[in-house]
């Protein structure tokens, strides 16, 4: 990535953002007009090719998207539930085929049959009221799902009121960054976005970096099919997330906070913006907060449809308006991130956990859960459970408790669960009783906790089709920066497709070579991570797959 481009695109600060402007230009038509895009490029002193290179990357900016009016969810949970062919058929009664696009995923995994129309998401039996929706998109209310804490309600504790909730923020402002950082480090809170990196260390790196300008980014690009816990927090607990960003800013000396929220969550954008306005109006954010001399300004950037933008360096490129390819590390974002300035990127849920730590102390968080995986974790259960929803679970809880007691078991037979998104492991049902919900148990079992979304793979869903679906997703979402992933995910998809179509058996040695190349040669955890679920499937469902391999 070009450092000069980062400087040029950052010249106007956050008030006038190139990527935001591209999104605005695309709104009327689904893609920016070429002449308007050229004018925008001129205004930022970048080339037209840079603007086109960016716009052509995203689902909701690229020219192929022109004229799309409605989008069908093609995420894994909707795919496994088999609801989408009927949704598509029904949509064709109101829209021309060329007006129908796809989105992955709308985070409606608890009831499926999901689609998006005019900036709103619908799921469950909403499709049966399609005519009404087309007349009035507000005719159907927000979706509902179970929200429950298995023991301790921390992230799911109902919001009190602004004054009570922000009392710990007043204490933080009277304290000092060093003391606040110590409290966070004591908690041993680990990132909830997938990698499990301690937030305290990341904040410390950024705090030490010398720069008058620093950024706090909330990664709200929750693209893992099966996950909707970040959506829950943004829509129902937005102040927890904003609180975490304020505290992170205070610790590091950053004065700008950006929420990068996926376009597939339109309601999360408006609800979070309302919460930001509330904070600014009450003096809890903005300039000279509560007379402390500390400033912190929030800004929401709406993403434009790309899974890889959840990867933190692709996300930074995205906000800058560059093509969102993954960056080579080092330098790490905490040293050189957005517009070349020190930047901390954290997941929504990680940030939301800071409220409890500021209120009760880092030691109180550390006491919950296991030694290495402290605190609670949100888990999303899909529509195959009798009680789908978002559950707050103490780290270390047996998975059988999550599935049977919280989820109420399955409504129809399920043979495996993919836990932790498309890069997470595929756990056969008979292995569930060997796992507890924490980073270590999953890693030692050969799986990955990730963001802890749960997608059920029903008994009658062919595993070869699941492999095909995984590679299809990985190939479509690859940023294309490195060969192993750009070519390898496509080859994996082709092999699975040919095997399904018949007359072709996959050479096991060649396939294993492909998986090794992806694991060892990929630049980031996208290409590097996709072999894990595929290997799990090959190990545990060998008998089912036998006829497809030589
Ligand atoms: C392909 C890919 C997609 C990712 N998507 C997300 C995402 O949607 N949300 C997220 O918080 N982290 C995502 N991550 C992880 C981020 O790169 C980063 O580790 C995370 O935002 C850091 O926050 P945390 O430490 O609070 O977890 C993704 C990583 C990869 C490789
Ligand atoms: S592994 Fe895939 S997504 Fe990651 S940098 Fe390489 S091409 Fe991009």
TrEMBL record:
Keywords: 4Fe-4S, Iron, Iron-sulfur, Metal-binding. Transmembrane segments: none annotated. Residues 464-509 form the NADH-ubiquinone oxidoreductase 51kDa subunit iron-sulphur binding domain. Pfam families: 2Fe-2S_thioredx (PF01257), Complex1_51K (PF01512), NADH_4Fe-4S (PF10589). PANTHER family: NADH-QUINONE OXIDOREDUCTASE SUBUNIT F (PTHR43578:SF3). Belongs to the complex I 51 kDa subunit family. This is NADH-ubiquinone oxidoreductase-F iron-sulfur binding region domain-containing protein. It comes from Robiginitalea aurantiaca.
